[in-house]
Specification:
By secondary structure, this protein is of the alpha+beta class. Helices cover 48% and strands 15% of the residues. It has a single domain, classed as Glutaredoxin (3-Layer(aba) Sandwich). It has a 4-stranded mixed beta sheet with strand order 2-1-3-4, sandwiched between helices.
């Protein structure tokens, strides 16, 4: 016969085991890394954030993700971390200088121009990107 004390100890041991983190590499999550653009797409979308995975960044990147398929390889996304490494900090300050003000989180820039200072509706973001692509198309037509 097992005592009540033994069964309570077994329950505690089971709870401890269930709370342990797995060290199996196949069960670990990949860390989220900032997005870096290659410069190959005609439209660059930059999202200002405090750090990768802040709530406002999550909302902004989710909105961008919703419309990415529409434009395919015509757009690229880059994360600009306000207080990230030295490179990010310098880039952030250059963007602020170009805008003539300190840019807030989650400002979304399109080709270096601050278009949204809060998370836009996906259709508004899509329209702004299309406007940029149309303007670039017009410029290319003039060159030919």
């Amino acid at each position: 016969m097992t005592s009540t004390k033994d069964s309570a100890k077994q329950k505690i041991d089971q709870q401890k085991e269930s709370c342990q983190t797995s060290t199996d590499p196949s069960e670990l999550y990949e860390p989220i890394t900032p997005l870096k653009a290659t410069g190959k797409a005609p439209v660059l979308i930059e999202i200002i954030c405090e750090r990768v995975h802040c709530v406002l960044y999550d909302y902004a990147i989710n909105t961008v993700d919703m419309i990415m398929e529409t434009f395919g390889d015509k757009i690229e996304v880059q994360t600009v971390i306000r207080q990230g490494d030295r490179e990010d900090a310098k880039h952030f300050l250059r963007l602020c200088e170009r805008a003539g003000k300190m840019l807030t989180v989650p400002t979304i820039l399109i080709n270096g121009e601050a278009m949204f200072t809060s998370v836009p509706h996906p259709s508004a973001l899509e329209a702004a990107i299309q406007k940029q692509l149309d303007a670039l198309g017009a410029k290319e037509a003039v060159r030919e």
